[in-house]
Amino acid sequence: MPLSNERWRNRAALAKMLIELPDVVLLDEPTNYLDMEGIAWLEQWLYRFKGAMILVSHDRQFIDKVVTRTIEIENYHFQEYEGN
Fold it and tell me: Which of 16, 22, 48, 79 has the greatest number of beta carbons closer than 10 A?
């Protein structure tokens, strides 16, 4: 299925931000508007990313591929988990 103009714009904006090598990235459901190729590229980029990342996602496969440490925040309490 071809990407719509909006999807190309979203993909280009995400790529532009990431190639600027930020220290911190904040991603809210980043896989929602990406095709499989875009998701694979983002997974690889984030896996190699050395900065801090705040990620909100319901895509467990994506999370498992890019996260090395998880901090759960609930009722003003933090619980840290190693691994994905």
Answer: 22
Torsion (CA) 47, 52, 56, 60 in degrees, nearest 10: 30
Alpha helices in the chain (DSSP H): 5-19, 36-48, 60-66
In angstroms, the CA 24 to CA 46 distance is: 11
Kindly list the domain boundaries of the chain, sorted by start residue.
5-82
pLDDT at 84: 67
| pTM score, whole prediction | 0.73
Q: What is the CATH number that goes with domain 5-82?
A: 3.40.50.300
For the chain, give the percent of residues with pLDDT over 70. Answer: 94
